[in-house]
Design a protein that fits this description.
The chain is of the alpha/beta class. It is 33% helix and 25% strand.
Length: 253
């Protein structure tokens, strides 16, 4: 095996004129909260396919929709409102975290104004479901969270996974970023938690509204579809297990 580090690359596939858009990350993590929320945002705002991120560290699979193969990790964008989203059809293996986050930093950071990251965390009780806390990379953004009525995470904590890698890259590069952590179902994909983080935390930070009716009306269907995604990734992860070991994760992922 080569000791040379692998890299991720970005390929732009369309021209979309945006004015300092907000990047909203929707890569699969705990409860698939970010993926569910950003799927809803991307579809509702009718964002266009802006580009793809590829890496040798991504799972050796082909994903498809409507009869067409597509890249695993994709970027969407639109100008009314100015939004950019980052999506993946599968949860990504730990080996890809560093190169993907560096790719976002070097190839996309100059195209967006700030980033909003979403993360699910296992709820310890039914009463906690849907609770949201916020973390910021700057004091100004922390003030924005407070002004928006979002509870600040007072206790020390750790965020792992690809979201943690992306937040770290933004912090180290002085890119304004907010992390919204929502308590979600400990074991299942959670459309209700996705709706909660959109309504109670994301909307107060952006200048557009998101209709979350579908997340409520189609919760069972969304949960079943996302569960299939999780099971597909689990199968891929098990097949790759001899080649890689999964490091310990943090408090939130």
């Amino acid at each position: 095996m080569s000791d040379q580090p692998t890299t991720s690359s970005f390929e732009q596939v369309s021209e979309i004129e945006t004015d300092e858009p907000t990047l909203i990350e929707g890569l699969p993590g705990h409860g698939l909260v970010a993926a569910i929320a950003v799927d809803q945002i991307t579809d509702q705002l009718e964002l266009d396919h802006y580009g793809n991120i590829t890496s040798d560290d991504f799972p050796p699979v082909a994903t498809f929709e409507n009869g067409l193969v597509r890249d695993l990790v994709r970027v969407y964008a639109g100008s009314d409102p100015d939004v950019m989203t980052l999506k993946s059809d599968l949860a990504l293996p730990p080996a890809s975290f560093e190169s993907l986050s560096q790719c976002v930093l070097t190839k996309l950071a100059d195209r967006f104004d700030r980033a909003i990251f979403l993360a699910g965390a296992p709820a310890q009780s039914e009463e906690q479901l849907g609770d949201v806390i916020g973390v910021a990379t700057t004091e100004d953004l922390r003030a924005d969270l407070t002004d928006a009525g979002i509870e600040i995470a007072d206790d020390p904590g750790v965020v792992g996974g690809i979201t943690g890698a992306l937040v770290r890259q933004c912090y180290q590069a002085d890119i304004p970023a907010v992390l919204l952590i929502v308590r979600s179902h400990p074991f299942l994909p959670d459309p209700s938690a996705a709706r909660a983080v959109i309504e109670n935390a994301l909307e107060p930070l952006v200048d557009f509204d998101v209709d979350t009716t579908a997340l409520e009306e189609q919760a069972d269907e969304i949960q079943q579809r996302m569960q299939q995604v999780a099971e597909q990734y689990q199968q891929v992860a098990e097949e790759q297990q001899p080649q890689q070991q999964t490091p310990a994760t943090g408090m939130f992922q």
